[in-house]
């Protein structure tokens, strides 16, 4: 039987592992280097939208996270991240990962993390252009899983990849039905991992995932799930265009109760301009066609200001198209003031 692992058990395990890793790296202190890297993220601000969306208006804490990472010699890297939920005042683990870089072209990651699937789905909250991921990324891309993944790069890291096997049931420690998720992604960047581009940059990526989910006598969707998508990113000096398309094909185990084979698809097209690395203006079309329910299409406008390397002030406004009803992340007339 698959059971969610108690939060305290996961937390204690992560803390013990982190303490052991830190202790094993202790000799580095004598050399003047820090074996542990501590990080955090706080995203807060004001959100105003119609009552139809079902969200609370007013000032909110959108994300509160803390992380701990480091290296154990040349053997492996480790990373632990937790988030505090203001809705129920609980602490939950997001990532617990150990990565073993065998060679520059190949490594192995083990633990709890997001499978290599999608472009925006793999971004951390601190790197979001807007408050949340696009509708398609949030609905179709797999969430955090427990598993193992091979990763690496070639062509002077212009070509990167990741492929792995996961429990397929989210952030749980047990899987006794042998129904796993398989996910893979490949990405090519014409220049490589350079943070600031003055030349034309072309980046393309593709993702695929497959799983057979829980039987019909358990909660949630039951059946086969095939997910795939493609994305492209273009930039020249301060101008950039990003587009991503994701699709999920679902074949329920019980076609009578689940209404047969279904599919969901959607994506976004985003254009932006960044001036002097301080001010960014961006506009995005965000569309999603769920397996059941009405289509949801929005235009989102945003302005981001970066007063410091780790700080961001953002304003966004969403407009619903074709009478689109509110989604979990967007609503017609939604206004967000973000401080990060």
Defining traits:
disordered N terminus; 340 residues; single chain; 4 helices; globular; mainly beta; 16-stranded antiparallel beta barrel; 16 strands; 53% strand
Summarize the structure in words:
It is a single chain. With 340 residues, the chain is mainly beta. It has helices at residues 7-24, 27-30, 135-140, 255-258, and strands at residues 36-48, 58-72, 76-85, 90-103, 106-113, 145-154, 159-166, 181-189, 201-212, 223-236, 239-252, 262-275, 279-289, 296-308, 311-321, 335-339. It has a 16-stranded antiparallel β-barrel. A hairpin with a 6-residue loop joins β13 and β14 (296-308). The relative contact order is 0.13. Residues 1-33 have low confidence and may be disordered.
* Count of discrete alpha- or pi-helical segments spanning 4 or more residues: 4
Unreliable residue runs: 1-33
Quaternary status of these chains? single chain
How far the N terminus sits from the C terminus, by CA atoms, comes to: 41 Å
> How many beta strands in the DSSP annotation?
16
String of helices and strands: HHEEEEEHEEEEEEHEEEEE
Average pLDDT taken over every residue: 84
Overall form: globular
Task: Give the strand content.
Answer: over 45%
**Which structural class should the secondary elements be placed in?**
mainly beta
Strand order of the largest sheet: 1-2-3-4-5-6-7-8-9-10-11-12-13-14-15-16
Radius of gyration: 21 Å
Q: What is the helix fraction of residues, given as a range?
A: under 10%
Largest sheet: 16 strands, antiparallel, barrel
């Amino acid at each position: 039987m698959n059971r969610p692992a108690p939060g305290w058990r996961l937390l204690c395990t992560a803390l013990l592992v982190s303490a052991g890793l830190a202790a094993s790296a202790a000799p580095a202190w004598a050399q003047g280097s820090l074996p542990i890297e501590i990080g955090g993220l706080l995203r807060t601000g004001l959100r105003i939208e119609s009552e139809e969306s079902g969200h609370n208006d007013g000032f909110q804490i959108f994300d509160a996270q803390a992380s701990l990472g480091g290296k154990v010699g040349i053997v492996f890297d480790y990373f632990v991240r937790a988030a505090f939920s203001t809705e129920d005042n609980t602490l939950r683990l997001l990532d617990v990962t150990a990565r073993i870089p065998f060679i520059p072209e190949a490594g192995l990651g083990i633990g709890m993390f997001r499978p290599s699937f999608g472009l925006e789905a793999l971004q951390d909250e601190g790197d979001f252009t807007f408050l949340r991921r696009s509708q398609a990324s949030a609905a179709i891309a797999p969430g955090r899983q427990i598993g193992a993944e091979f990763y690496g790069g070639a062509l002077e890291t212009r070509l990167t990849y990741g492929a792995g096997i996961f429990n397929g049931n989210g952030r749980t420690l047990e899987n006794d039905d042998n129904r796993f998720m398989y996910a893979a992604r490949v990405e090519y960047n014409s220049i490589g991992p350079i943070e600031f581009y003055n030349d034309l940059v072309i980046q393309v990526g593709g993702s695929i995932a497959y799983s057979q989910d829980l039987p019909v006598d358990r909660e949630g969707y039951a059946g086969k799930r095939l997910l795939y998508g493609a994305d492209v990113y273009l930039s020249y000096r301060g101008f950039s265009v990003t587009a991503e398309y994701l699709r999920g094909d679902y074949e329920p185990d019980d076609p009578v109760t689940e209404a047969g084979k279904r599919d969901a698809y959607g994506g976004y097209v985003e254009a932006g301009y960044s001036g002097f690395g301080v001010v960014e203006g961006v506009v995005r079309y965000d569309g999603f066609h769920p397996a059941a329910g009405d289509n949801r299409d929005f235009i989102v406008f945003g302005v981001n200001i970066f007063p410091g390397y780790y700080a961001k002030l953002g304003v966004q406004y969403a407009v619903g198209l074709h009478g689109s009803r509110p989604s979990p992340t967007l609503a017609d007339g939604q206004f967000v003031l973000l401080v990060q």
